[in-house]
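Continuing from the previous page of notes. For each protein in this section, the sequence appears first, followed by its structure tokens. Read the first protein now.
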Amino acid sequence: MFRRKLSALDYHNPAGFNCRDETEFRNFIVWLEDQKIRHYKIEDRGNLRNIHSDDWPKSFEKYMKDVNCPFKIQERQETVDWLLGLAVRLEYGDNADKYKDSTPDGAKNVDNTAKNAEPLINLDVNNPDFKAGVMALANLLQIQRHDDYLVMLKAIRILVQERLTQDAIAKASQSKEGLPVALEKHILGFDTGDAVINEAAQILRLLHIEELRELQTKINEAIVAVQAIIADPKTDHRLGKVGR
């Protein structure tokens, strides 16, 4: 998952890095700060370098806040990916003259017309800024988290189209005038012996039926949204790519 960025940063073991191994993870963070990010002054890195301390998680959490990492300490993979992205950007800034004229293999023959035809073709789904932005939107809109950030982005698009457009908001703002209901036409099915309680029970039953109808409507909307994502022939969620 991190091999390309680790290789770009000359990490000693890009293929075998395991962020779930606590000791390896802590040593990696120290290496990343010492060699690439260098956010702290050397004399201020003591707590972060003390990887055997019980207070190390607190020091790392403070470090995340200091570098403005948008993820929580429990979101380890996302945090590592974001920090690697930061390190790559800083590395490029330190060596801009070295990389400014470099061109990726195969990029020289790209058809610009076809490239611009689909705006999502140029989207780097592994970019930490992209992931952080999608996660922030998903949290704001209360959308279920998914391992594929592109899937979450498409879910956000569907929600915005269906709920947050001007037409959708205007339709939702329209007041709904209820229709009169004749309770005597609705059989309760049992008798409590008290006319007032019987009428209250009839009202509660009708309200429950209305809630079930609203729930079914929301279920249908969710099914349609999922089908819209899955049925998109231009999306290969396994590869995290868009386009044929």
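Done with the first. The second protein uses the same format. Note its length before scrolling.
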Amino acid sequence: KMDDDDDDIPQLSSHTLAALQEFYLEQQQREGMKTSQGFNQYSVGSIEEDWQLSQFWYSDETASCLANEAVVAAGKGGRIACVSAPSVYQKLKEQDGKDFSVCILEYDRRFSVYGEEFIFYDYNHPLNLPENLLPHSFDIVIADPPYLSEECLQKTAETIKYLTKGKILLCTGAIMEEHAAKHLGVKICRFIPKHSRNLANEFRCYVNYASGLD
């Protein structure tokens, strides 16, 4: 009788099993890298992507380029807000000691490890922000709305317009160009942002000021 019961247990194919073992091995290696000496908690990828939250991290080069652009745009002693753009925030923090300040507005509470600079943010409630986050108090706002929908962009735009003194750097799909112009008055740049994993949708940057991304 026991033998009959065993037949009902689903068996993984050797291919699936191998893929699973490879995944766990990679995960162990990543964890090992994190615990090894010199691990940087701000490096892009130090917090894993969560695809269920529509998270896709920028490549290291793209994150660096956008971070450098933000520093120049913010100016000396400038304030930078990263809205749903944690990879740019991480790159900015790698430049610790430079003359600027930065905060991260993010739905994913794992980023609360960054302390007081983390602000919980849900785009469905665009102006549900802490009282100490004063209107028009950031020299530049970098935003990457999590979804390619006009509703998501429109709500995120409310947050952006509340926070910024004027300068906006938006990263979203090429298909959002018309909506981006309508809700934020931004224009597409020549710079093409890349992600650590290839996305199906073409991605672009948009700005409303003379930037170094053209």
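What the second structure shows: The helical segments are 2-7, 14-35, 60-74, 86-94, 150-163, 177-184. Residues 126 and 155 are 6 Å apart (CA to CA). We return to this in next week's lecture.
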